[in-house]
Amino acid sequence: MATMTTRTVEYPADGLTMIGHLALPAGVGRRPAVLLGPEGMGLSDVERRRADALAELGYVALAFDLHGGRYLGDPEEMLARCLPMLADPDRMRGIGHAALDVLRTEPRTDPDRIAAIGYGTGGAVGLELGRDGVDLRAIGTVNATTTGRPGEAARIRCPVWAGVGSEDPIMPPAQRDAFTAEMQAASVDWRLTVYGGALHAFHHPPVDHPTVPGVGYHPQHAQQVWRDIVDLLAECLPVTEDLGA
């Protein structure tokens, strides 16, 4: 019986050679696709497994790279690269568009049915693609209630869902309020889910290196937030059979 397959893809972005993880569902026909962005530390097996899980559900999934094949386990090094990136919407859009081009040109991808899902910095990249007017079916973010340049949220053409921990000091209530005010002013179909008692990156299993303050794994909410992401995709980007299947 046919199963999903994976392969590594290399592509240029942000002056680096990015190394992404592409997961393809069983079959040969075109399928809806998901662009999957990692936390600020960069692409890891956590995101690769999530891309694989999406492929098992019938999606073409690309877990994209942020740091040219590197995983930044040193918090100071991670912040030194991510903070300037988060302050530069055009730079984030460049990283997102480069990965999106890879996903769109994959023969198994239906280029008219793509969603962006992301965590932390990777979620901010997905939001910037929306603010840049990219035709997406849904944008889902975790730990990424980031705001953009004034007025550009009006270019978002799809539902936006954001999940955040109630105790997240990196995305605190004031930041959440600014994000939702931006979405509301732009008449975006937005939703916000607050996971009680959860810190930043609550979805990410514990790591064996130092992290920035305010990070913590919450097993119960980690499972729930994944179900919420899958539900968002089922609603906005349902898997349908292609005639070439």
From TrEMBL:
Residues 20-235 form the Dienelactone hydrolase domain. Keywords: Hydrolase. Its EC number is 3.1.-.-. Transmembrane segments: none annotated. One of its GO terms (molecular function) is hydrolase activity. Pfam families: DLH (PF01738). InterPro entries: AB_hydrolase_fold, Dienelactn_hydro, FrsA_esterase. The keyword Hydrolase applies. The keyword Hydrolase applies. It comes from the Bacteria. Belongs to the AB hydrolase superfamily. This is Dienelactone hydrolase family protein.
